[in-house]
C-alpha cells in the first residue's frame, strides 16, 4: 500500500501513550519549555482499568501540579475541589480502604471485634477525600489539557518502527492513511504493560519472583447495591463503608468494588490461576456468575446489577519488564510493571516515576550524567516494584488467614501514611522509596516480614512474626495502627498525627499547621 505524504514532527520528547500518565508527563515537560509530541494508538474517550487513587497518589498529583504550575490538574487531587472545578468529569468518593474476608459458600458474618474485616479511613471528611478516577473522562480531560498547553497530539496512530540516527530517535508509523515520522531526542513510554518500547526494543520480560500467577476479570456495572444498605452496622463505622475501595477477600483471590458518581460501579476480581481455572475465568460473564455463587454476601450487591460493558479477562495480571531505561528512552513505572491492584499501588508508583523522570530530564542533558541518572531511575523503579510484589505476594499467601493478612497490610498503611506526612512537612528524605523500601530499617524489615509470612508460620513462629511486624511499624505509625482497641476500624484522627510529631522530626506547631493546611482540622482549632 502506498501511503499519502509524510507528516514530519520534530520534538524534544515523544511520549507514547495518552493515559493519565502520558498526559501528565507531557504537561510537566511542556511547562519546562520542551516540545512534546503525545502519541496515542486509540482515541479518547476510551475504557481503562485502574481507577482507585490513594492519599499518597493525590499528594503526588498535587506536588506535580504545584511544581509545574498546573492549577487545573490540582483540581483533581481531592474530591471537593474536583466537584467544584470539574463536575463534568465523573469520579468516585473514596474515604478509605474496606476489607471483608469471606469463606466460600458461607454468608459473611462477624463479631463485635471485627475479626473478618478491616476499615482504614484515608480522610476525615468528604471535601478532602480521595477519588476513584472514571478513566474514560479523566484521561480524556488530561489529554485535552496537554493539547491546550501545546502538545502535538496524534491519536489513532500506529507506530511501527523505531531507530536511532545522529543522537535522535526516529519513530515511524501511520495515521489516517498518512505516514508519520517523529524525530525526538528522548522517548517516554507511557503505553502500559507490554507496551510500545517493550516490543520495539524487544526487552525481556522479567519473571514474577514472589507473587502467584493471577488473572483478572472485570467490567463496569449499574445498579450495584450498597453494603451499608444491605448490612447496616450497629455502631457508626469510621466512614461510609461503600464510599471506599471495597475489597472482598477469599482464599485465592479478591473482588474490588469502586462506586462512581455517575451511577456506575467498577467491579472485578483478581484470581490465582487455580481459582480462575475452576471458575473458567475466560468465559467472562458466566465466570463472574459462578464466582458470585460462591460468595453469597457479595452476590447480594449484584441482585439487580447489570454489566454495561462486556467483561474483560486478563489472562495474566502481573508484568515486569527486565529493563526500564536506556540511552534516550525510559518506561514509566506503569509500563515497566504491574503487580496487582490489591493495595492501589499503580498510581503512586507511576506518579513518583513521572516526577523523577521529568526532574532528571531537566537536570541533565544527553551524555554520561544523564545515562547515570537513567540507571538510577531504573534501579529505583525496579526496587519499588520488588517491594510491592513482596508485600502483595505475602497478602496472597494469607488470604485464608484474615488476622495475619490484616497485620501485614498495616505495613502498607504505616508506610503510606508516614510517607504522606513526611512529604507534606517538606521532609521527603524521611520516607525514601515507595513503601519506604529504601529506608535502612523499614525496607529490610518489610522484606523479612513478607518472606516469613509467605511460609504460613504457625505457633511461636507466627507470634514472633506478629511482634516483628509491630516493631517494624511502630517508629512509622502516625495513624494509631497499633492501637488494638480500635478493633481494626481505623478513623483518621488529628490526635494520632499530633502524637507522632517526634517520629516526623516535627514540632507540634508544625503538625498543627499541616493539619490546618490540609483541611484535616479547621483553622480555628488552634485557639
Ligand atoms: C485490573 C487492574 C486494576 C488496577 N487498579 C488500580 C487501582 O485501583 N489503583 C491504582 O493505583 N492502580 C491500579 N492499577 C494499575 C493502573 O491501571 C495503572 O497504574 C494505570 O492504568 C497506568 O496508567 P497509564 O496512563 O500509564 O497507562 P494506561 O492507562 O494503560 O494507558 C496507556 C495508553 O497508551 C496507549 N497505547 C498503548 N500502546 C500504544 C502504542 N503502541 N502506541 C501508542 N499508544 C499506545 C493505550 O491506548 C492507552 O491509552 C490496576 C491495574 C490493573 C491491571
Portion of residues in beta strands equals: 15-25%
Sheet having the most strands: 9 strands, mixed
**Class computed from helices, strands and strand pairing:** alpha/beta
What is the mean predicted local confidence, pLDDT? Answer: 96
Beta-strand segment tally: 21
Radius of gyration: 23 Å
- For the record, give the distance between the C-alpha atoms at the N and C termini, rounded to a whole number: 76 Å
Residue share in helices? 25-40%
Question: In words, what does this structure look like?
Answer:
The protein has 527 residues and is an alpha/beta fold. It has 18 helices and 21 strands. β8 (157-165) and β9 (168-175) form a beta hairpin. α1 (20-31) runs parallel beside α12 and α12 packs antiparallel against α13 (368-397). Bound molecules: flavin-adenine dinucleotide. The site of flavin-adenine dinucleotide has 34 residues, from α1, β11 and α12.
Question: In terms of topology, how is this protein built?
Answer:
Layout: E1 4-16, H1 20-31, E2 36-39, H2 55-67, H3 71-74, H4 79-85, E3 91-94, E4 96-101, E5 117-121, E6 130-133, H5 135-148, E7 152-154, E8 157-165, E9 168-175, E10 178-189, H6 196-200, E11 214-222, H7 227-230, E12 245-250, E13 253-259, E14 264-272, H8 273-279, H9 285-294, H10 296-299, E15 306-307, E16 312-314, E17 319-320, E18 325-326, E19 329-331, H11 333-336, E20 337-338, H12 346-363, H13 368-397, H14 402-424, H15 442-453, H16 459-473, E21 489-490, H17 494-498, H18 508-517
Parallel strand pairs: 1-2, 1-10, 2-7, 4-12, 5-21, 10-19
Antiparallel strand pairs: 3-6, 4-5, 8-9, 9-10, 11-14, 11-15, 11-16, 12-13, 13-14, 17-20, 18-19
Helix pairs in contact: 1-5, 1-12, 2-12, 12-13, 13-14, 13-15, 14-16, 15-16
Amino acid at each position: 500500500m502506498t501511503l499519502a505524504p509524510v507528516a514530519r514532527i520534530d520534538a524534544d520528547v515523544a511520549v507514547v501513550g495518552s493515559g493519565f500518565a502520558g498526559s501528565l508527563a507531557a504537561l510537566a515537560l511542556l511547562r519546562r519549555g520542551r516540545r512534546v509530541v503525545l502519541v496515542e494508538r486509540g482515541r479518547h474517550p476510551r475504557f481503562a482499568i485502574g481507577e482507585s487513587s490513594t492519599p499518597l497518589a493525590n499528594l503526588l498529583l498535587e506536588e506535580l501540579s504545584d511544581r509545574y504550575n498546573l492549577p487545573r490538574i490540582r483540581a483533581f487531587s481531592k474530591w471537593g475541589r474536583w466537584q467544584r472545578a470539574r463536575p463534568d468529569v465523573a469520579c468516585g468518593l473514596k474515604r478509605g480502604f474496606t476489607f471483608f474476608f469471606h469463606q466460600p459458600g458461607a454468608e459473611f458474618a462477624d463479631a463485635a471485634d471485627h475479626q473478618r474485616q478491616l476499615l482504614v479511613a484515608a480522610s476525615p471528611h468528604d471535601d478532602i477525600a480521595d477519588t476513584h478516577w472514571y478513566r474514560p473522562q479523566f484521561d480524556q480531560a488530561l489529554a485535552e489539557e496537554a493539547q491546550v498547553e501545546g502538545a502535538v497530539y496524534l491519536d489513532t496512530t500506529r507506530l511501527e518502527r523505531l531507530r536511532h540516527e545522529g543522537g535522535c530517535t526516529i519513530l515511524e508509523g501511520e495515521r489516517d492513511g498518512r505516514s508519520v515520522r517523529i524525530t525526538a531526542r528522548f522517548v517516554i513510554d507511557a503505553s502500559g504493560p507490554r507496551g510500545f518500547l517493550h516490543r520495539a526494543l524487544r526487552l525481556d520480560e522479567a519473571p514474577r519472583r514472589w507473587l502467584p500467577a493471577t488473572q483478572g476479570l472485570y467490567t463496569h456495572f449499574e445498579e450495584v447495591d450498597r453494603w451499608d444498605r444491605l448490612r447496616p452496622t450497629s455502631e457508626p463505622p469510621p466512614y461510609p463503608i461503600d464510599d471506599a475501595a471495597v475489597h472482598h477477600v477469599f482464599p485465592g483471590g479478591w473482588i474490588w468494588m469502586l462506586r462512581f458518581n455517575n451511577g456506575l460501579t467498577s467491579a472485578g476480581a483478581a484470581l490465582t490461576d487455580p481459582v480462575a481455572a475452576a471458575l473458567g475465568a475466560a468465559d467472562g460473564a458466566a465466570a463472574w456468575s459462578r464466582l458470585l455463587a460462591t460468595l453469597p454476601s457479595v452476590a447480594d450487591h449484584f441482585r439487580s446489577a447489570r454489566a454495561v460493558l462486556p467483561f474483560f479477562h486478563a489472562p495474566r495480571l502481573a508484568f515486569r519488564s527486565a529493563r526500564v531505561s536506556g540511552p534516550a528512552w525510559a518506561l514509566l513505572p506503569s509500563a515497566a510493571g504491574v503487580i496487582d491492584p490489591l493495595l492501589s499501588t499503580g498510581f503512586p508508583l507511576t506518579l513518583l516515576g513521572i516526577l523523577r523522570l521529568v526532574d532528571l530530564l531537566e537536570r541533565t542533558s544527553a551524555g554520561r550524567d544523564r545515562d547515570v541518572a537513567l540507571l538510577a531511575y531504573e534501579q529505583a523503579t525496579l526496587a519499588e516494584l520488588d517491594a510491592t510484589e513482596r508485600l502483595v505476594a505475602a497478602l496472597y499467601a494469607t488470604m485464608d488467614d484474615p488476622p495475619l493478612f490484616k497485620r501485614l497490610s498495616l505495613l502498607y498503611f504505616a508506610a503510606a501514611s508516614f510517607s504522606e506526612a513526611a512529604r507534606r512537612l517538606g521532609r521527603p528524605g524521611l520516607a525514601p522509596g515507595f513503601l519506604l523500601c529504601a529506608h535502612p530499617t523499614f525496607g529490610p524489615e518489610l522484606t523479612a516480614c513478607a518472606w516469613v509470612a509467605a511460609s504460613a508460620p504457625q505457633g511461636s513462629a507466627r507470634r514472633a512474626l506478629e511482634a516483628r511486624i509491630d516493631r517494624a511499624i511502630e517508629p512509622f505509625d502516625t495513624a494509631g495502627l497499633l492501637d488494638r482497641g480500635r478493633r481494626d476500624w481505623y478513623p483518621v484522627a488529628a490526635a494520632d498525627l499530633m502524637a507522632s510529631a517526634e517520629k516526623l522530626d516535627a514540632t507540634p506547631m508544625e503538625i498543627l499547621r499541616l493539619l490546618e493546611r490540609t483541611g484535616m482540622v479547621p483553622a480555628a482549632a488552634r485557639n
